Amino acid sequence: MGVEERDKYTGHMTTGHEWNGIKELNTRVPRVIWITLSLAFVFAIICWILYPAWPLGVTYTKGLLETNQHIRVDKDVERAIDSRAVWTDKIISLDYGQIQDDPNLMKIVRETGQTLFLDNCAACHGRTANGGPGFPSLRDKAWLWGGTPEAISETIRVGINASNDDTRMSQMLAFGHDQMLTRNQIDDVINYVLSLNKSAAQHDVGEASIASGKTVFLENCASCHGENAEGSIEVGAPNLTDDHWIYGGTRQAIFTTVWKGRMGQMPSWQGRLSAVDQKILTLYLLDLGTSDAEKSKSGASRN
Q: How far is it, in rounded angstroms, from Cα 98 to Cα 302?
């Protein structure tokens, strides 16, 4: 600890502290700092007086201007609902075909539907709706429960294997795990299914295996997938003759499906989305499955 003295260069008193020959000056806080702090304090006082500021138990100081953000937001929401009602009323009242024939309404459907899809569906079906392992593509028109507007809307409403009382129920049995089929029978039925699918990789398998697989298929699989393996929208069974595979179309993927079974799930959106939002989402999904050429042709025919 040193002794206070006046610095000969600046004229300020020192604090008496010295480090390595450097003495600490006892300088005053600049006047501009005091002015700035004073103005900030005055500004804060004015804000406390004019605007809501201090909590008082179950309430708060309202301020002279009585500014209330809750009321502002409520009014903004009311105005948004009123402006939205101009076109939501039309969407509710018109049938799907009439809406699809209206370019202005379809523009709204595409904009609003995209937001609804990204917020609620993209987590499973992907941002582009192309699906992924376990989640079907919504662009390929290979609809498990039917691709009509009414069928798609119902699927959105009740879900699949969901908690809704009217939910669609679908399950692929575990034929191998539950010992309903032997390993040889499973191999044969896979060979038969691959022989039906033109896009699937073909392997050199004997005709006897395919014939045996057909028998296994007719006895165990046709009740859901149909005798021609083209699926059934009544039970949500997929078509096995096309190239649209939910869990993959490789031999290993098909084997896993037959052996372990499958039971996908889609939540029910009733109660989560309003009726008009469900209808918009239905129209949006239908529009995704329409090619740009079809849209251009449709638009030209309307003009």
A: 12
